[in-house]
Each structure stands twice: as structure tokens, then as C-alpha cells.
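User: Sequence for Solute carrier family 25 member 51a below. C-alpha cells please.
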Amino acid sequence: MDSWHYLCGYFAAFTNISITFPIQKVLFRQQLYGLRTRDAVRQLQHDGLRNLYRGILPPLMQKTTTLALMFGLYEDFSNLLLQHTTAPELLTRSVAAVLAGTTEAVLTPFERVQTLLQDNKHHNRFNNTFHAFRTLRSYGFQEYYRGLLPILLRNGPSNALFFGLRGPIKQCLPEATSYSTHLVNDFICGGLLGAMLGFLFYPVNVVKARMQSQVGGDFQSFRVVFLTIWKEREGKVSHLFRGAHLNYHRSILSWGIINATYEFLLKFF
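Assistant: C-alpha cells for Solute carrier family 25 member 51a:
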């Protein structure tokens, strides 16, 4: 096991979350309520500056650990499978990426609590991260994993595409001749992939946000929740993708930072 990949993934996530959390919060409100960007921003302004970073602890804990696992487990699974199988490398690495993404889903409770803390209808119900965790405990262990299916549907395939396309995209960019140009290329590569994958899996995240905003009650299937949202948004794809343009730009910045920071740190470690 090479711990450097885990550490680099951890610090890449920390850097990203610290910078992009307010943008993510606007996006979350759009996913949950189907708001226009300006309305979501006004909602956050109404919440006040003290609530702007409310809910950052769960994603900070979850994303740092998730990306540490994403990069670290991908390398470990890849090395393990390459040593013990004769399958083509592309297939082997794709399986490794899916396995890493599936393992990340263990951290669903953090994403669950983040959703509750970012939803303004729960502001008076949950004081902070630890209070939310304690409150959910009274509903049973399964409540922590509400919304697990969309996370699994997102993590595995998106990991496979990210790691599978990262190299080819970078090869298409102008050759880097210095640390700074390597950094720029890594940022562009990560940003393009993040934007593409963020858009591709956006409806899955919309369903996940709706599932995880509920506390208690029946566990509805992915299909039922999707159809409910579809009807609420008048059966229009454009309404389903509300916030996708902001997600696109956030993903460029977010995954650009993650990929560039990860590769930068990896060179030094």
C-alpha cells in the first residue's frame, strides 16, 4: 500500500472544499428546490453570513476521506489486480476504479448529514453536524444510508470514466515543459473531466438530494423519487437540470483544483 496517494488525495480534497463550498451550497439549493441561480443566491443571503459555511464539516470530513480512498484505493486495487489477473489493463483499471468508488459509499452518512445541514428547512432542527448524527440515530442505522443507491450509481461509473480518460485527455494537451505548465495541464484535464461527469450524473445527484433531505418515513425507490421530481418540474428536462450550468462551472474549478493539487503533491512526495 502506497500511503502517499491517500495523503495527496486527502489534501487535494481539503483545498477544494475550502474554496468551493459556497458555490456548492448554491448548487445544492437548486438541486433540491429547482430554484434559479439568483433565487438560490438570495436564499443564502437571507440565511446570513454566519450560515454560509454551515454544513462544511461533513463534506470536509467526507470528501477528504473519500478522495483519499478514491486515489489511494484505485492505485492499490490496480496494482493488486494487475499482479493477479491476465485481463487487459484497461479493463483491470476500470474494475479497480469501480471498486474504489463502491468502497467510498461507506461514507454515505457524511453526505447524508451534509444534505440536511444545507437544507434551510432543517436549520432550526439540527444545530450542527454532531447533533444531526445523534438525531438520525433515533431513526435507526438505515437512516444514515438513505440515498445510498444513487451514490453507488454515481461513484463507480464516474470513477471508471475519470481514471480512464484522465491520461488520454492530458496527452491531447500541449506538452508541459515546466512545473507551472504541468500544473495548468492537470487543472484543465481535471476540470474538463469533472465538468463532463458532473453534467452526466447531475440527475442522479438531484434524486440523491431529494432522498437525503427526508428524515424518517418510508424509503422510496430511486424510480419513485425520480418520477416525483419529474412531475413536480413539469416533465421538462431543462427543469430537471436546473443548476447544471453552475455545477458545470463549479466542477471545472473543483476538479481542476483536485487534480492539479493531487498531481502537484504527488511529485513532491
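The chain has one domain: 3-268.
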